[in-house]
Mce-associated membrane protein
Amino acid sequence: MSLRKNPLLAMALVAAALAAVLAAWAGTSWYAAAHDDAADFAASRDDALAAARQAVTNLNTLDHREIDEGLDRWEASATGELLAQLRKGREGFEKEVREAGTVTTAEVLSAALTELDDRAGRADVLVAVRITVTAPGEKPQAKESRMLGEVTRTGDGWKLSALGQAPAGDSAGGDAGESRGGQAGDGGQ
């Protein structure tokens, strides 16, 4: 039986060939997208930024009624020298916040990575945060500030490895990194 005598068979063969070409194109496109370095870099950037936002929130939020949980969150959000400093100062933070009876909450207003070295697993971040401190019998006091930080990729994901106040205006003077020595924000002070 020839293809001229059976147009239905000819159309089926053309459709099958077209389907094979489309399947090959789709497979190649999928493979290229799945192995795209730009997509991996974008995912790392998004993960690092999300972790930085959460960590800055955690390290600037502390409630005297749930002090142990709050300080545990601080430690879970940090790594490296910052984690060591938090552990070293934990007893003092706890005493100070209990005595003051304060509740401190943080809201990240905006955040951006200023540098990402995906291979080294570190990123610098600039965060604008509103910190509200409520003391017994007083109205809540809110303060907005900019913070510079660094996040480092660990086995448990990205964690804050440095945090400090960003210089304001023209007063930067020296190396902005000097202020990132691992301070933990206001934390109820």
Q: What stands out?
A: The beta strands are 62-63, 103-117, 122-134, 141-154, 157-165. Residues 7-34 form the longest helix (28 residues). The domain at 41-180 is CATH 3.10.450.230 (Nuclear Transport Factor 2; Chain: A,).
